Amino acid sequence: MNTYPGERLGLPESGTGSIARPGRRIGALLIDYAAATIIATGFLGYDQFALPTEAGLTQFAPMLVFAVLQILFIPTAGGSPGHRILGMRLVRRDGGWIGLWRPVVRTLLLIVVVPAVIWDSDQRGLHDKAIGTILIRA
C-alpha cells in the first residue's frame, strides 16, 4: 500500500521531485487559460454583443492559444507557463526528453477534460499516464 502519492514511482514525499499536488495543477491551468484568453483577445479582439453563431473563430481562440502554449512550452521549458510560474515541470517517467509528440497528445487529452480529471493513486491524470509523464515540483 502506498503511503503518499508518488511513492510507487520512487519519488520523494515532498519537496523537489515530488508529485505536484492538485492545488498547483489547478492554479497552473488557470494561469495558462487566463494568458491564452488575454493573448487571443489581444490579437483577435472580443465582441461582447456577437451571437454564438456570429462569433466564429474568436469563440475558440482562447482554447487554440492555450493548446499552442502547451505544445510550445512543454518541450522547450519543461512545462507550460503556469507550471513554471508555480514551480512545476513535466518529466518523462524514464527520465528522457519529453520530445515533440507527447505535448501534442497530452494537450489534446487535456482539452477533452475527462482524462485530466481522472487520477490514479499517484495523482497522475490519464493524460499523463497515456504518454508516460509525471508532473513534479521543480
Describe this structure in words.
The chain has 138 residues and is mostly helical. It has one domain. 54% of the residues lie in helices and 7% in strands. It is built from 7 helices and 2 strands. The chain has helices spanning 22-44, 52-55, 57-77, 81-85, 101-112, 114-117, 126-131, and strands at 88-92, 133-137. The protein is elongated, with a radius of gyration of 16 Å. The two termini are 26 Å apart. The model has no long low-confidence stretch (mean pLDDT 91).
Query: What fraction, in percent, of the residue positions are helical?
Result: 40-55%
Largest sheet: 2 strands, antiparallel
Record field, number of beta strands: 2
Major beta sheet, strand line-up: 1-2
What separation lies between the terminal Cα atoms? 26 Å
Shape: elongated
Low-pLDDT stretches are none
Radius of gyration: 16 Å
Give the averaged pLDDT, no decimals: 91
Question: Strand percentage, roughly?
Answer: 5-15%
Total count of domains: 1
**Continuous helix count:** 7
* Class from helix and strand fractions: mainly alpha
What is the string of helix and strand elements?
Answer: HHHHEHHHE
Membrane topology: Multi-pass membrane protein
Subcellular location: Cell membrane
Keywords: Cell membrane, Membrane, Transmembrane, Transmembrane helix
Organism: Microbacterium aurugineum
